[in-house]
């Protein structure tokens, strides 16, 4: 019994230290070198605290639309739909997203719709869209808000987040930050 008991106890303590202390310290250290030091990105919008790193639902014509969500933007239920690419329900939801996009953007051909405007991300809570997805919405927003398209394109350029270290990931735009800036721009433009 001693031949098995003492090695098992030692192994338990080794893995306890490895998994509970060392691994946790490594993950904490990595978080501290990321943007926001591993803390949530909170911005104040008209006195309300909102998380800019969690997807929010924007589907009104006067705003930049967010990426679709498989979990209806519920952070407690984050995740993908887990439906395969040939699942009929999944294909119907994609077609519904395409149809909705085309109705609100009649000047955009179906083949030019950015993929992030019709598919949900793996988390279902992606707060960002590609620069292409933001630019393709400019005409709709300019028409609804009575703004010059050039103003909106300039606003997008000011809010582009470039790839980490210039190579990791695509350039993107945070939808909440962009829409807050859009409200400010619209208010100041029409106040003149």
Description:
This protein is mainly alpha-helical and 192 residues long. It has two domains: 1-39, no CATH class; 41-191, no CATH class. Helix content is 46%, strand content 8%. The protein has six helices and five strands; from the N terminus they run αββαβαααββα. A three-stranded antiparallel sheet has the order 3-5-4. A two-stranded antiparallel ribbon has the order 1-2. A hairpin with a 2-residue loop joins strand 1 and strand 2 (48-51). It is elongated and about 80 Å long. The chain starts with a helix and ends with a helix. The model has no long low-confidence stretch (mean pLDDT 87).
Order of secondary-structure elements: HEEHEHHHEEH
Helix content: 40-55%
Number of helices: 6
| Overall pLDDT metric | 87
Strand coverage percent: 5-15%
Shape: elongated
> Structural class, from secondary structure content?
mainly alpha
Q: What gyration radius follows from the Cα positions, in whole Å?
A: 22 Å
GO molecular function: ATP binding; P-type potassium transmembrane transporter activity
Transmembrane segments: 12-31
InterPro entries: KdpC
Keywords: ATP-binding, Cell membrane, Ion transport, Membrane, Nucleotide-binding, Potassium, Potassium transport, Transmembrane, Transmembrane helix, Transport
